[in-house]
C-alpha cells in the first residue's frame, strides 16, 4: 500500500476518508478503526473494497475457521481483523513499515485479548524479505484495493506466487478503474486460475478468486 498524503482541499465525496475514525459491525463485533489520511494517505483509510470483501467473508462462502490467512497491503487492517473475528486460526496482517504502528493500534483495539496471540502485524514490502514468511504457508491470501500502481504489479505477483501453495485461496477486492487494472488480472492469469465471484453494484467493487496453477495446468 503506497503512503500518499493528500491535500485538504478534497472532494465532498471523499469526506468520509478524512474522518478520524470509522465504525462497522462485522462478525457480531463492533469494529472501530482509526483513520489518518493526512499523515499516511491511502494506507490509513478504509476503502469500499475492504468493506465489500468483509461483507463477502461474513457470508461464509470461504471457510475461515481453522485457516492460516495473510492480508497484503492491509492499511487500517479491517479485512484481517474481520478474518480473525470470523475464526481464522492465525492471521498475519501486513503493510509497509511506516504504517505498522498505526495498523497495530487498530488491531489491538478491535481483537479480543484472548485472540490477540493469533493475530500478527508484520512488515511486508512486496517482493522484499519474502524469506521471513513460510513459502506456500497460507491457506488464504486477502487483498483489498491493492491493485492500483502498475509499477508494483511484478513485485505483488512475485509475493503472491511465493505465499501461495496449490491449495491457497486468494481473494482480491478491487474497482476496475483503468486499463492497467485489467492488465494486472491478465498478468495474474499466467500463474493463477482467476474467477470473478462477486460484484457489488452499489459500490462498483469486484471480488476475484484466484488459485495457483499446477504444473499440469501450465
UniProtKB/TrEMBL annotation:
UniProt keyword list: Cytoplasm, Membrane, Methyltransferase, S-adenosyl-L-methionine, Transferase, Transmembrane, Transmembrane helix
Pfam families reported for this sequence: Methyltransf_16
Subcellular location: Cytoplasm
Major location category of this protein: cytoplasm
Biological processes, Gene Ontology terms: methylation
Gene Ontology terms: cellular component: cytosol; protein-containing complex
Single annotated GO MF: methyltransferase activity
Transmembrane segments: 37-57, 69-88
Catalysed reaction, written as an equation: L-lysyl-[protein] + 3 S-adenosyl-L-methionine = N(6),N(6),N(6)-trimethyl-L-lysyl-[protein] + 3 S-adenosyl-L-homocysteine + 3 H(+)
Family indicated by similarity: Belongs to the methyltransferase superfamily. METTL21 family.
Protein name per Swiss-Prot or TrEMBL: Protein N-lysine methyltransferase METTL21A
Gene coding for it: METTL21A
Amino acid at each position: 500500500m503506497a503512503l500518499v498524503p493528500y491535500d485538504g482541499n478534497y472532494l465532498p465525496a471523499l469526506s468520509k476518508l478524512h474522518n478520524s475514525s470509522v465504525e462497522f459491525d462485522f462478525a457480531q463485533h463492533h469494529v472501530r478503526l482509526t483513520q489518518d489520511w493526512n499523515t499516511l494517505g491511502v494506507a490509513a483509510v478504509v476503502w469500499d473494497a475492504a468493506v465489500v470483501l468483509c461483507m463477502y467473508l461474513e457470508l461464509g462462502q470461504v471457510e475461515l475457521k481453522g485457516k492460516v490467512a495473510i492480508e497484503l497491503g492491509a492499511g487500517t487492517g479491517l479485512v484481517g481483523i474481520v478474518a480473525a473475528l470470523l475464526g481464522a486460526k492465525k492471521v498475519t496482517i501486513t503493510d509497509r513499515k511506516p504504517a505498522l504502528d498505526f495498523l497495530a493500534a487498530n488491531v489491538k483495539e478491535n481483537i479480543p485479548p484472548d485472540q490477540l496471540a493469533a493475530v500478527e502485524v508484520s512488515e511486508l514490502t512486496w517482493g522484499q524479505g519474502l524469506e521471513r514468511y513460510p513459502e506456500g504457508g497460507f491457506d488464504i491470501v486477502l487483498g483489498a484495493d491493492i491493485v492500483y500502481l502498475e509499477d508494483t504489479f511484478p513485485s505483488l505477483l512475485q509475493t503472491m506466487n511465493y505465499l501461495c501453495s496449490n491449495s491457497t485461496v486468494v481473494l482480491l477486492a478491487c474497482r476496475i478503474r483503468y486499463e492497467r487494472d485489467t492488465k494486472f488480472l491478465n498478468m495474474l492469469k499466467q500463474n493463477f486460475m482467476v474467477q470473478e465471484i462477486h460484484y457489488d453494484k452499489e459500490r462498483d467493487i469486484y471480488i476475484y478468486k484466484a488459485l495457483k496453477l499446477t504444473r499440469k495446468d501450465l
